[in-house]
What does this fold into?
Amino acid sequence: MTSGARGSRTVTPYDDVERELANLLRRARTMNRDIAVDVHPDLQPAAYALMSRVAELGSVRASDLSDYFGVDKGGVSRQVALLERLGLVARDPDPDDGRAQRLVLTPDGGSRLTAAREGRRRRLREQLERWADADVGALGALLGRFNREQDSVAGG
Amino acid sequence: MTSGARGSRTVTPYDDVERELANLLRRARTMNRDIAVDVHPDLQPAAYALMSRVAELGSVRASDLSDYFGVDKGGVSRQVALLERLGLVARDPDPDDGRAQRLVLTPDGGSRLTAAREGRRRRLREQLERWADADVGALGALLGRFNREQDSVAGG
It folds into this structure.
């Protein structure tokens, strides 16, 4: 039921995993675009990614975002300006450096992000609820193993 | 062997899949950074993503990249300028519009991209070769089903 149009080509199980990982990562871009619009209709995907990082860290300097995303400071500045204009992110004084500022989510930004993520989570569950429990368990376990091994490679 | 430190918290199989998908997508950022450096030591991740899109389409207008990545034109221009400076991307006249140009990979850009991707593919295989064949097959099949269902949702 899962294979199909493959015919006589030699496709190894490695090829399958590789292709499906690539598909998933490509789709991640679309998903990010969709969730960005859920957060705010005028939010660009790149600015959403930046907002997610602010949420993840609680507060962060713009210069650290520049390093993290591999985007120059001008690019980060423009995205931060958009996030401020939309009322999603604000600047707080940096307790460690009076002249510096840290980016934080506004209360509205936080609640919009939570609501958009809840929506995504609900859609994911609706999809997986149609699967056999054993398949859901297997996907979680295999992805978990894959990720942990990638971590240990990255760390070593 | 795959579970562990979970204790008495109620973690459903959905939570596992959700968390591991999030881990995987987060890791995608790191992987993109690594492969960007493999392509060229001075290549930023954002510019690598743009270069990948050029490779995927064969040739593309800069304005289409701006739409696709949700980045403003200035941001795309700066990344394209970096890619040109590194000799990875060049501009060809657009056959449909004499005044417009399309971005293409240079031969050097193409061979560097291929080599970097081969390296990533080899590392993925080395990882999965340590798995039981049945687990590799299951991961490919389950991810494939997940992706196809996401496609059909996105299309409907």
DSSP finds six helices and two strands in chain B.
